Amino acid sequence: MTKKKSQKVARALRTQLFHLTNPIFFETLLLMLTGATDVFMLSRFSDDAVAASGVVNQLVFLICLVYMITTLGTSVLCAQYLGAKQKKNVAQVIGVSILLNLIMGVVVSAGLYYFAPQLLHLMGLKAHLFDYALPYMGLVGGSSVFLAVVMTLGAILRSHNKAYYPMWVALLINIINIVGNYLLIFGHAGLPRLGIVGAGISTMACRFVAVILLAYILFTRVTGVPPLRYFKPFPWDKIKNLLIVGLPAAGENLSYDLSQVVITYFAVLLGAASLTTRTYTMHIVMFSYVFAIAIGHGASITIGHLVGRARNQAAFSLEKYSIRWALVVSVAISLLTAIFGKQIFSLLSHNPDVIRLGVIVLWVDVVLEIGRAVNITAVNSLIASGDVLFPFWTGVIVMWGVATLLAYVLGVWLGWGLVGIWLAMALDELIRAAVFERRWRSCKWQNKAFTH
Protein backbone atom coordinates (compact mmCIF):
# COMPACT_ATOMS: atom_id res chain seq x y z
CA MET A 1 0.00 0.00 0.00
CA THR A 2 1.43 3.40 -0.98
CA LYS A 3 1.91 6.11 1.63
CA LYS A 4 -0.82 8.25 0.07
CA LYS A 5 -3.30 5.38 0.05
CA SER A 6 -2.35 4.44 3.61
CA GLN A 7 -3.04 8.00 4.79
CA LYS A 8 -6.40 7.96 3.01
CA VAL A 9 -7.36 4.70 4.72
CA ALA A 10 -6.27 6.09 8.11
CA ARG A 11 -8.42 9.21 7.60
CA ALA A 12 -11.41 7.05 6.66
CA LEU A 13 -10.98 4.94 9.80
CA ARG A 14 -10.70 8.03 11.99
CA THR A 15 -13.84 9.47 10.41
CA GLN A 16 -15.65 6.19 11.09
CA LEU A 17 -14.37 6.25 14.67
CA PHE A 18 -15.80 9.71 15.32
CA HIS A 19 -19.08 8.84 13.61
CA LEU A 20 -19.41 6.22 16.35
CA THR A 21 -17.82 8.24 19.14
CA ASN A 22 -20.03 11.34 18.82
CA PRO A 23 -23.40 9.63 19.44
CA ILE A 24 -21.87 7.32 22.07
CA PHE A 25 -20.45 10.40 23.81
CA PHE A 26 -23.80 12.16 23.90
CA GLU A 27 -25.60 8.97 24.93
CA THR A 28 -23.14 8.37 27.78
CA LEU A 29 -23.32 12.02 28.79
CA LEU A 30 -27.11 11.89 28.86
CA LEU A 31 -27.10 8.71 30.95
CA MET A 32 -24.67 10.31 33.38
CA LEU A 33 -26.86 13.39 33.46
CA THR A 34 -29.73 11.13 34.49
CA GLY A 35 -27.78 10.05 37.57
CA ALA A 36 -26.46 13.55 38.21
CA THR A 37 -29.99 14.95 37.92
CA ASP A 38 -31.19 12.50 40.56
CA VAL A 39 -28.38 13.58 42.89
CA PHE A 40 -28.94 17.30 42.27
CA MET A 41 -32.71 17.11 42.74
CA LEU A 42 -32.41 14.88 45.80
CA SER A 43 -29.89 17.35 47.26
CA ARG A 44 -32.75 19.88 47.33
CA PHE A 45 -34.68 17.30 49.38
CA SER A 46 -32.07 15.93 51.82
CA ASP A 47 -28.33 15.22 52.12
CA ASP A 48 -29.24 11.92 53.79
CA ALA A 49 -31.27 10.93 50.73
CA VAL A 50 -28.22 11.68 48.55
CA ALA A 51 -25.96 9.53 50.74
CA ALA A 52 -28.47 6.65 50.76
CA SER A 53 -28.96 6.79 46.99
CA GLY A 54 -25.19 6.80 46.49
CA VAL A 55 -24.71 3.57 48.45
CA VAL A 56 -27.72 1.90 46.80
CA ASN A 57 -26.62 2.83 43.28
CA GLN A 58 -23.08 1.60 43.98
CA LEU A 59 -24.46 -1.75 45.14
CA VAL A 60 -27.04 -2.09 42.35
CA PHE A 61 -24.45 -1.24 39.71
CA LEU A 62 -22.06 -3.78 41.18
CA ILE A 63 -24.59 -6.61 41.13
CA CYS A 64 -25.86 -5.57 37.70
CA LEU A 65 -22.37 -6.19 36.34
CA VAL A 66 -23.55 -9.74 35.70
CA TYR A 67 -25.42 -8.24 32.74
CA MET A 68 -22.12 -7.03 31.33
CA ILE A 69 -21.03 -10.66 30.88
CA THR A 70 -23.49 -10.95 28.02
CA THR A 71 -23.35 -7.31 26.90
CA LEU A 72 -19.57 -7.16 26.44
CA GLY A 73 -19.51 -10.52 24.71
CA THR A 74 -22.31 -9.40 22.41
CA SER A 75 -20.50 -6.22 21.41
CA VAL A 76 -17.21 -8.00 20.60
CA LEU A 77 -18.74 -10.95 18.76
CA CYS A 78 -21.19 -8.86 16.73
CA ALA A 79 -18.40 -6.46 15.70
CA GLN A 80 -16.05 -9.25 14.63
CA TYR A 81 -18.76 -11.25 12.83
CA LEU A 82 -20.01 -8.12 11.05
CA GLY A 83 -16.45 -7.33 9.97
CA ALA A 84 -16.11 -10.87 8.60
CA LYS A 85 -19.60 -10.63 6.97
CA GLN A 86 -20.88 -13.72 8.85
CA LYS A 87 -24.56 -12.71 9.00
CA LYS A 88 -25.95 -15.94 10.44
CA ASN A 89 -23.50 -15.78 13.33
CA VAL A 90 -24.56 -12.18 14.00
CA ALA A 91 -28.25 -13.16 14.13
CA GLN A 92 -27.52 -16.04 16.49
CA VAL A 93 -25.53 -13.82 18.85
CA ILE A 94 -28.41 -11.31 18.93
CA GLY A 95 -30.96 -13.96 19.82
CA VAL A 96 -29.02 -15.78 22.53
CA SER A 97 -27.70 -12.57 24.13
CA ILE A 98 -31.17 -11.07 24.60
CA LEU A 99 -32.50 -14.36 25.99
CA LEU A 100 -29.55 -14.81 28.36
CA ASN A 101 -29.70 -11.29 29.79
CA LEU A 102 -33.48 -11.47 30.18
CA ILE A 103 -33.16 -14.61 32.30
CA MET A 104 -30.32 -13.16 34.37
CA GLY A 105 -32.27 -9.91 34.76
CA VAL A 106 -35.25 -11.65 36.32
CA VAL A 107 -33.04 -13.56 38.78
CA VAL A 108 -30.94 -10.51 39.78
CA SER A 109 -33.96 -8.22 40.13
CA ALA A 110 -35.66 -10.69 42.45
CA GLY A 111 -32.51 -10.97 44.56
CA LEU A 112 -32.08 -7.19 44.86
CA TYR A 113 -35.74 -6.76 45.83
CA TYR A 114 -36.08 -9.56 48.40
CA PHE A 115 -32.63 -9.32 49.99
CA ALA A 116 -32.33 -5.53 50.11
CA PRO A 117 -31.95 -5.25 53.94
CA GLN A 118 -29.20 -7.87 54.11
CA LEU A 119 -27.28 -6.34 51.20
CA LEU A 120 -27.44 -2.84 52.65
CA HIS A 121 -26.22 -4.15 56.02
CA LEU A 122 -23.23 -5.66 54.22
CA MET A 123 -22.49 -2.19 52.80
CA GLY A 124 -22.26 -0.84 56.34
CA LEU A 125 -25.10 1.65 55.80
CA LYS A 126 -25.93 3.73 58.88
CA ALA A 127 -29.24 2.91 60.60
CA HIS A 128 -30.75 6.38 60.07
CA LEU A 129 -30.32 6.03 56.27
CA PHE A 130 -32.30 2.78 55.98
CA ASP A 131 -35.66 4.55 55.72
CA TYR A 132 -34.36 6.25 52.58
CA ALA A 133 -32.39 3.34 51.15
CA LEU A 134 -34.81 0.39 51.42
CA PRO A 135 -37.71 1.69 49.28
CA TYR A 136 -35.26 3.14 46.74
CA MET A 137 -33.45 -0.21 46.54
CA GLY A 138 -36.74 -2.03 45.95
CA LEU A 139 -37.61 0.19 42.99
CA VAL A 140 -34.19 0.65 41.38
CA GLY A 141 -32.92 -2.86 42.08
CA GLY A 142 -36.21 -4.61 41.41
CA SER A 143 -36.49 -3.04 37.95
CA SER A 144 -32.93 -3.89 36.91
CA VAL A 145 -34.29 -6.54 34.50
CA PHE A 146 -35.24 -3.64 32.21
CA LEU A 147 -31.68 -2.34 32.49
CA ALA A 148 -30.36 -5.78 31.45
CA VAL A 149 -32.36 -5.73 28.22
CA VAL A 150 -31.55 -2.07 27.51
CA MET A 151 -27.81 -2.77 27.82
CA THR A 152 -28.02 -5.69 25.38
CA LEU A 153 -30.12 -3.87 22.79
CA GLY A 154 -27.81 -0.84 22.94
CA ALA A 155 -24.70 -3.01 22.45
CA ILE A 156 -26.24 -4.66 19.38
CA LEU A 157 -27.20 -1.34 17.80
CA ARG A 158 -23.77 0.20 18.41
CA SER A 159 -21.97 -2.81 16.92
CA HIS A 160 -24.06 -2.26 13.77
CA ASN A 161 -22.80 1.37 13.59
CA LYS A 162 -26.24 2.62 14.68
CA ALA A 163 -25.09 4.39 17.81
CA TYR A 164 -27.33 7.39 17.19
CA TYR A 165 -30.48 5.35 18.02
CA PRO A 166 -29.48 4.70 21.66
CA MET A 167 -28.42 8.36 21.83
CA TRP A 168 -31.89 9.65 20.89
CA VAL A 169 -33.53 7.19 23.29
CA ALA A 170 -31.21 8.40 26.07
CA LEU A 171 -32.23 12.00 25.33
CA LEU A 172 -35.91 11.14 25.63
CA ILE A 173 -35.30 9.17 28.82
CA ASN A 174 -33.42 12.08 30.33
CA ILE A 175 -36.38 14.38 29.71
CA ILE A 176 -38.82 11.85 31.18
CA ASN A 177 -36.59 11.42 34.24
CA ILE A 178 -36.31 15.16 34.91
CA VAL A 179 -40.09 15.63 34.62
CA GLY A 180 -40.76 12.52 36.72
CA ASN A 181 -38.34 13.64 39.44
CA TYR A 182 -39.81 17.15 39.50
CA LEU A 183 -43.34 15.82 39.90
CA LEU A 184 -42.69 12.92 42.27
CA ILE A 185 -39.79 14.03 44.49
CA PHE A 186 -41.31 17.40 45.37
CA GLY A 187 -45.02 16.65 44.88
CA HIS A 188 -45.99 19.05 42.11
CA ALA A 189 -49.13 19.03 39.92
CA GLY A 190 -51.22 17.60 42.76
CA LEU A 191 -49.03 14.51 43.17
CA PRO A 192 -47.75 13.35 46.59
CA ARG A 193 -44.29 14.47 47.79
CA LEU A 194 -42.45 11.13 47.66
CA GLY A 195 -38.80 12.18 47.98
CA ILE A 196 -36.35 9.38 47.20
CA VAL A 197 -39.23 7.01 46.39
CA GLY A 198 -40.29 9.39 43.63
CA ALA A 199 -36.77 9.26 42.17
CA GLY A 200 -36.96 5.46 42.19
CA ILE A 201 -40.33 5.38 40.43
CA SER A 202 -39.06 7.77 37.77
CA THR A 203 -35.97 5.59 37.16
CA MET A 204 -38.08 2.44 36.83
CA ALA A 205 -40.45 4.08 34.33
CA CYS A 206 -37.55 5.38 32.22
CA ARG A 207 -35.98 1.91 31.94
CA PHE A 208 -39.27 0.37 30.79
CA VAL A 209 -39.76 3.02 28.10
CA ALA A 210 -36.18 2.49 26.90
CA VAL A 211 -36.76 -1.26 26.46
CA ILE A 212 -39.82 -0.71 24.29
CA LEU A 213 -38.20 1.92 22.08
CA LEU A 214 -34.87 0.13 21.53
CA ALA A 215 -36.52 -3.22 20.79
CA TYR A 216 -38.82 -1.60 18.24
CA ILE A 217 -35.91 0.18 16.53
CA LEU A 218 -33.67 -2.90 16.42
CA PHE A 219 -36.22 -5.33 15.01
CA THR A 220 -38.01 -2.97 12.61
CA ARG A 221 -35.23 -0.70 11.31
CA VAL A 222 -31.87 -2.44 11.72
CA THR A 223 -31.74 -6.24 11.83
CA GLY A 224 -35.25 -7.60 11.70
CA VAL A 225 -36.30 -10.49 13.94
CA PRO A 226 -33.73 -13.33 13.67
CA PRO A 227 -35.25 -16.31 11.78
CA LEU A 228 -36.27 -19.19 14.05
CA ARG A 229 -34.43 -21.69 11.84
CA TYR A 230 -31.11 -20.14 12.96
CA PHE A 231 -31.77 -21.54 16.43
CA LYS A 232 -32.48 -25.15 15.43
CA PRO A 233 -30.36 -26.74 16.75
CA PHE A 234 -29.74 -24.20 19.48
CA PRO A 235 -26.39 -22.40 18.96
CA TRP A 236 -24.72 -23.34 22.23
CA ASP A 237 -21.37 -22.39 20.71
CA LYS A 238 -22.49 -18.74 20.68
CA ILE A 239 -23.28 -18.85 24.39
CA LYS A 240 -19.86 -20.42 24.94
CA ASN A 241 -18.17 -17.60 22.99
CA LEU A 242 -20.23 -14.96 24.80
CA LEU A 243 -18.99 -16.34 28.10
CA ILE A 244 -15.39 -16.69 26.88
CA VAL A 245 -15.38 -12.96 26.11
CA GLY A 246 -17.86 -11.75 28.68
CA LEU A 247 -16.73 -13.47 31.87
CA PRO A 248 -13.17 -12.07 32.02
CA ALA A 249 -14.23 -8.74 30.46
CA ALA A 250 -17.02 -8.29 32.98
CA GLY A 251 -14.71 -9.69 35.64
CA GLU A 252 -12.34 -6.76 35.12
CA ASN A 253 -15.27 -4.38 35.64
CA LEU A 254 -16.52 -6.46 38.57
CA SER A 255 -13.11 -6.32 40.22
CA TYR A 256 -13.08 -2.53 39.87
CA ASP A 257 -16.56 -2.10 41.29
CA LEU A 258 -16.02 -4.54 44.15
CA SER A 259 -12.93 -2.52 44.96
CA GLN A 260 -15.04 0.64 44.85
CA VAL A 261 -17.63 -0.91 47.17
CA VAL A 262 -14.91 -1.62 49.73
CA ILE A 263 -13.55 1.90 49.26
CA THR A 264 -17.08 3.25 49.78
CA TYR A 265 -17.13 1.33 53.06
CA PHE A 266 -13.90 3.10 54.05
CA ALA A 267 -15.64 6.40 53.27
CA VAL A 268 -18.52 5.32 55.52
CA LEU A 269 -15.99 4.81 58.33
CA LEU A 270 -14.74 8.37 57.82
CA GLY A 271 -18.17 9.84 58.62
CA ALA A 272 -21.22 11.33 56.92
CA ALA A 273 -19.38 14.34 55.47
CA SER A 274 -16.82 12.14 53.70
CA LEU A 275 -19.51 9.78 52.38
CA THR A 276 -21.62 12.67 51.08
CA THR A 277 -18.54 14.30 49.50
CA ARG A 278 -17.59 11.04 47.81
CA THR A 279 -21.11 10.63 46.42
CA TYR A 280 -21.12 14.15 44.99
CA THR A 281 -17.54 13.85 43.68
CA MET A 282 -18.18 10.54 41.91
CA HIS A 283 -21.01 12.15 39.96
CA ILE A 284 -19.00 15.29 39.20
CA VAL A 285 -15.88 13.52 37.89
CA MET A 286 -17.93 11.29 35.60
CA PHE A 287 -18.03 14.17 33.18
CA SER A 288 -14.22 14.17 33.03
CA TYR A 289 -14.04 10.68 31.57
CA VAL A 290 -17.27 10.53 29.57
CA PHE A 291 -15.39 11.25 26.33
CA ALA A 292 -12.83 8.54 27.14
CA ILE A 293 -15.70 6.07 27.57
CA ALA A 294 -17.20 7.17 24.26
CA ILE A 295 -14.01 6.97 22.23
CA GLY A 296 -13.11 3.72 23.99
CA HIS A 297 -16.41 2.15 22.92
CA GLY A 298 -16.09 3.61 19.43
CA ALA A 299 -12.56 2.24 19.13
CA SER A 300 -13.73 -1.13 20.44
CA ILE A 301 -16.37 -1.48 17.72
CA THR A 302 -14.11 -0.21 14.94
CA ILE A 303 -11.20 -2.37 16.07
CA GLY A 304 -13.56 -5.37 16.29
CA HIS A 305 -14.57 -4.80 12.67
CA LEU A 306 -10.89 -4.49 11.65
CA VAL A 307 -9.89 -7.63 13.53
CA GLY A 308 -12.75 -9.49 11.84
CA ARG A 309 -11.24 -8.43 8.50
CA ALA A 310 -7.71 -9.41 9.67
CA ARG A 311 -6.47 -5.79 9.44
CA ASN A 312 -4.35 -5.81 12.59
CA GLN A 313 -1.99 -2.98 11.65
CA ALA A 314 -4.89 -0.61 11.10
CA ALA A 315 -6.31 -1.67 14.48
CA PHE A 316 -2.92 -1.03 16.15
CA SER A 317 -2.71 2.52 14.80
CA LEU A 318 -6.32 3.35 15.63
CA GLU A 319 -5.84 2.49 19.31
CA LYS A 320 -2.93 4.93 19.66
CA TYR A 321 -4.95 7.67 17.95
CA SER A 322 -7.90 7.02 20.28
CA ILE A 323 -5.77 7.26 23.41
CA ARG A 324 -4.34 10.63 22.39
CA TRP A 325 -7.81 12.11 22.07
CA ALA A 326 -9.04 10.47 25.27
CA LEU A 327 -6.13 11.97 27.23
CA VAL A 328 -6.48 15.49 25.84
CA VAL A 329 -10.22 15.78 26.47
CA SER A 330 -10.30 14.02 29.87
CA VAL A 331 -7.47 16.07 31.37
CA ALA A 332 -8.90 19.34 30.01
CA ILE A 333 -12.34 18.69 31.52
CA SER A 334 -10.91 17.53 34.86
CA LEU A 335 -8.80 20.73 35.08
CA LEU A 336 -11.84 22.91 34.43
CA THR A 337 -13.82 20.96 37.01
CA ALA A 338 -11.08 21.47 39.61
CA ILE A 339 -10.77 25.19 38.86
CA PHE A 340 -14.51 25.72 39.34
CA GLY A 341 -14.80 23.09 42.10
CA LYS A 342 -15.95 25.49 44.82
CA GLN A 343 -18.76 26.87 42.66
CA ILE A 344 -19.86 23.36 41.66
CA PHE A 345 -19.96 22.04 45.22
CA SER A 346 -21.72 25.17 46.45
CA LEU A 347 -24.60 24.31 44.11
CA LEU A 348 -24.89 20.85 45.64
CA SER A 349 -24.35 21.39 49.37
CA HIS A 350 -24.37 24.11 52.01
CA ASN A 351 -22.08 22.13 54.29
CA PRO A 352 -18.69 23.96 54.38
CA ASP A 353 -16.83 20.73 55.25
CA VAL A 354 -18.25 18.99 52.18
CA ILE A 355 -17.36 21.94 49.93
CA ARG A 356 -13.79 22.28 51.27
CA LEU A 357 -13.05 18.55 51.04
CA GLY A 358 -14.64 18.22 47.61
CA VAL A 359 -12.48 20.97 46.10
CA ILE A 360 -9.25 19.29 47.30
CA VAL A 361 -10.35 15.89 45.96
CA LEU A 362 -11.13 17.37 42.54
CA TRP A 363 -7.52 18.55 42.19
CA VAL A 364 -6.22 15.06 43.04
CA ASP A 365 -8.65 13.67 40.47
CA VAL A 366 -6.84 15.55 37.67
CA VAL A 367 -3.94 13.10 38.07
CA LEU A 368 -6.32 10.15 38.32
CA GLU A 369 -7.98 11.01 35.00
CA ILE A 370 -4.65 10.69 33.13
CA GLY A 371 -4.50 7.00 33.99
CA ARG A 372 -8.22 6.42 33.62
CA ALA A 373 -8.33 7.79 30.05
CA VAL A 374 -5.61 5.36 28.96
CA ASN A 375 -7.17 2.44 30.85
CA ILE A 376 -10.62 2.84 29.37
CA THR A 377 -9.35 3.01 25.79
CA ALA A 378 -6.64 0.35 26.04
CA VAL A 379 -8.87 -2.20 27.84
CA ASN A 380 -11.69 -1.73 25.30
CA SER A 381 -9.21 -2.25 22.46
CA LEU A 382 -7.69 -5.40 24.01
CA ILE A 383 -11.12 -6.92 24.64
CA ALA A 384 -12.28 -6.06 21.10
CA SER A 385 -9.33 -8.00 19.71
CA GLY A 386 -10.18 -11.07 21.80
CA ASP A 387 -7.38 -10.56 24.35
CA VAL A 388 -9.67 -10.73 27.39
CA LEU A 389 -7.74 -12.58 30.09
CA PHE A 390 -4.83 -10.14 30.45
CA PRO A 391 -6.99 -7.10 31.43
CA PHE A 392 -8.86 -9.27 33.94
CA TRP A 393 -5.83 -10.59 35.84
CA THR A 394 -4.03 -7.25 35.72
CA GLY A 395 -7.12 -5.50 37.05
CA VAL A 396 -7.60 -7.92 39.93
CA ILE A 397 -3.96 -7.69 41.06
CA VAL A 398 -3.47 -3.92 40.77
CA MET A 399 -6.93 -2.71 41.84
CA TRP A 400 -6.83 -4.69 45.07
CA GLY A 401 -3.10 -4.50 45.72
CA VAL A 402 -2.89 -0.74 45.15
CA ALA A 403 -6.26 1.07 45.14
CA THR A 404 -8.05 -0.88 47.87
CA LEU A 405 -5.11 -1.60 50.16
CA LEU A 406 -3.63 1.89 49.97
CA ALA A 407 -7.08 3.50 50.31
CA TYR A 408 -7.30 1.96 53.78
CA VAL A 409 -3.67 2.69 54.66
CA LEU A 410 -3.71 6.31 53.52
CA GLY A 411 -7.34 7.19 54.12
CA VAL A 412 -8.17 5.39 57.37
CA TRP A 413 -4.99 4.18 59.08
CA LEU A 414 -2.82 7.26 58.44
CA GLY A 415 -5.83 9.56 58.75
CA TRP A 416 -5.54 11.34 55.40
CA GLY A 417 -9.28 10.85 54.88
CA LEU A 418 -10.94 11.10 51.49
CA VAL A 419 -7.86 12.76 49.98
CA GLY A 420 -5.77 9.71 50.87
CA ILE A 421 -8.38 7.44 49.30
CA TRP A 422 -8.27 9.46 46.07
CA LEU A 423 -4.46 9.37 45.98
CA ALA A 424 -4.57 5.55 46.21
CA MET A 425 -7.09 5.39 43.37
CA ALA A 426 -4.95 7.69 41.22
CA LEU A 427 -1.86 5.50 41.69
CA ASP A 428 -3.87 2.42 40.73
CA GLU A 429 -5.08 4.04 37.48
CA LEU A 430 -1.58 5.16 36.50
CA ILE A 431 0.00 1.74 37.08
CA ARG A 432 -2.67 -0.10 35.10
CA ALA A 433 -2.43 2.45 32.29
CA ALA A 434 1.28 1.73 31.86
CA VAL A 435 0.75 -2.06 31.92
CA PHE A 436 -2.16 -2.09 29.44
CA GLU A 437 -0.47 0.20 26.97
CA ARG A 438 2.67 -1.94 27.03
CA ARG A 439 0.50 -5.00 26.33
CA TRP A 440 -1.08 -3.36 23.30
CA ARG A 441 2.27 -2.31 21.86
CA SER A 442 3.59 -5.88 22.28
CA CYS A 443 0.96 -7.03 19.69
CA LYS A 444 0.28 -10.20 21.71
CA TRP A 445 -3.43 -9.55 21.14
CA GLN A 446 -3.17 -10.45 17.46
CA ASN A 447 -4.58 -13.75 16.15
CA LYS A 448 -7.14 -14.05 18.96
CA ALA A 449 -10.18 -13.27 16.79
CA PHE A 450 -13.30 -15.48 16.97
CA THR A 451 -13.76 -15.31 13.19
CA HIS A 452 -10.73 -17.48 12.40
Indicate the topology.
Layout (H helix, E strand, L loop, with lengths): L2 H41 L3 H17 L2 H18 L3 H28 L1 H7 L7 H13 L1 H16 L4 H23 L9 H27 L13 H35 L1 H37 L3 H28 L1 H8 L3 H34 L3 H25 L3 H26 L10
Helix pairs in contact: 1-2, 1-8, 1-11, 2-6, 2-10, 2-11, 3-4, 3-7, 3-10, 3-11, 4-6, 4-7, 6-9, 7-9, 8-9, 10-11, 10-15, 11-12, 11-14, 12-14, 13-14, 14-16, 15-16
- Which structural category fits the helices and strands? mainly alpha
The Cα radius of gyration reads 22 Å
* Strand proportion: under 5%
Mean pLDDT: 87
Total of DSSP H or I helical runs spanning 4+ residues:
16
Label the overall shape. Answer: globular
Elements, N to C (H/E) = HHHHHHHHHHHHHHHH
- Percent helix, as a range, is over 70%
pLDDT under 50 segments (min length 5)?
Answer: none
What distance separates the N and C termini? 24 Å
- Give a short account of the largest sheet: none
Record field, number of beta strands = 0
Structure description:
The protein has 452 residues and is mainly alpha-helical. 85% of the residues lie in helices and 0% in strands. It contains 16 helices and no strands. The protein has helices spanning 3-43, 47-63, 66-83, 87-114, 116-122, 130-142, 144-159, 164-186, 196-222, 236-270, 272-308, 312-339, 341-348, 352-385, 389-413, 417-442. The model has no long low-confidence stretch (mean pLDDT 87).
What is the structure about, briefly put?
By secondary structure, the chain is mostly helical. 85% of the residues lie in helices and 0% in strands.
